[in-house]
Design a protein that fits this description.
The protein contains 17 helices and 16 strands. With 422 residues, it is an alpha/beta fold. The protein has two domains: 227 residues, 3-Layer(aba) Sandwich (Rossmann fold), CATH 3.40.50.1480; 155 residues, NAD(P)-binding Rossmann-like Domain (Rossmann fold). An eight-stranded parallel β-sheet has the order 1-4-3-2-5-6-7-16, with helices on both faces. Helix 2 packs parallel to helix 3, helix 2 packs parallel to helix 15 and helix 15 runs antiparallel to helix 16. The longest helix is centred in the middle third of the chain and has 24 residues. It starts with 6 loop residues before the first strand and ends in a 7-residue tail after the last helix.
Length: 422
Amino acid sequence: MGTRPDHDVADLGLAEVGQARVEWADARMPVLRSIRERFAREQPLAGVRVAVCLHVTTETANLVRALSAGGAEVALCASNPLSTQDDVAAALVDRYDASVHAIQGEDMATYYDHIEHVVDTRPQITMDDGADVISVIHSRRTELLGDIVGGTEETTSGVLRLRALESQGKLGFPVVAVGEAQTKRFFDDRYGTGQSTLDGILRATNTLLAGRVVVVFGYGWCGRGIALRARGAGSQVVVCEVDPLRALEAKLDGFEVMPALAAAAKGDVFVTATGGRDVVRREHYELMRDGALLCNAGHFDVELNLADLRAVAPERRVVREHVEQHVTPDGRRLHLLAQGRVVNLAAAEGHPAAVMDVAFANQALAAEYLVRHAHELRAGVIEVPRELDHEISRLTLASLGVEIDALTAGQQEYLTAWEIGT
C-alpha cells in the first residue's frame, strides 16, 4: 500500500474487519453495484471533487466506491457523531483509498473540524444528510460557492433547512432533494426507518414490545413505517400529529390518534419522527409512567427536549449501553436511548443494505445528473427527476426478479388523447 489519503479515523487496524462487512453489504446492494459497474466503464464523474457528509456505514462505503469508480475524488465525513462504524472508516482509507474524517463518538468540536477538512477539498458536488456541509459553506466558507456545480440532500430534515435557505434567497447552487424521491421514501423512510428504529430500541433495551403502548410522534413516511412495524411486533400504537390530514390517515389506518399530553400518560415507548424540535418536553415528562423509554428517529437530536428532561428528572446514570436512566423526585424512571440521537444508527446499524441500495442509487445518479446538466439548473432545491426514480425502480425490480407489463400502443394513445369520450 502506498501513501494513504488524508484521514482521521479511530484505528486503521480495523480495516480487515471493515472490508468484510463492506463486502457483505455490497452483496445485498445489486442496484448500486450495477451503477458502479457502469460508472467504471463510462467515467461520468471523472475529476469531480465530491464532499460527502453521510452516516459512515457499510452502505455508505459502497456509495463511496461507486462514486470513486465513476472517477470522482471523494472526501467523506460523518453526518452524526454516534453513527460512524470505525471499522468501515478504516477500510475506506486502507482498502479503498478514500479520504475519511470520522470517529465514532467524536465531540462536536471534532465533528465540525472533520466537516471543515472535507470542505477544504473545494468540492464541486456536496452530498449531505442533514445539510451540515451546505450550512458550513453558506455561513463560513462562501468563497467556495463559485466552484460548486450542485449538491444532494438525503433526509427530510436537511431539505427543510435548505428550503429555509432558499426562501431567503441565499441558497447558492442547485440541490437535488434525494430525500423526497418516491423510491427513497418508500424504501428508506417507510420500510428502512420502520425496521431499523425497532432494531435500535430492541438492541438498546432488550424489551418486549408485544403488549406495550408505543407512541409515535409524526405520521410522515418515517412515522408510518415505525407505526406499522410496532403494530407487527404486537404493540398498541398511538399516533400524535399536528397535521389533520395525516392524523386522519393514521386513524383510518387503524391507529389510535390523540394529543401528546394524553399519550404521555398512556405510553410505554415514545418515538419522535417529526423533523421538528421540542416535540416531547416538560409537560409530557411530568405525566409519563415509571419505566418509559424515550427515543428519537429524526435526524437531529432536538425532538426530545433534553434540558426539560434533566429538570424534571435530575438524577441520572447509565444503566445499559445506549440507555441513560433519569429519575424524578417521586421515583419515576425515564429512560433516554442513544442520547436522544437517531436511535436506529446510534444504537444499531441503521437501515438494511437492501434499503440503502435504493437510497444511495438515488445519490449516485443525482450526482451524475448534476454534472451532465450543470449549466441548465437554477440555484435552489430541485426534485429528483422522474426518469431517475423510474430507472431506480426498474433496476430494483430486475434485481428482485420481478417483471411487469408495458402499455400497448392503443393503451398509450388512449391515455394521451382527449377526443375519446363515453
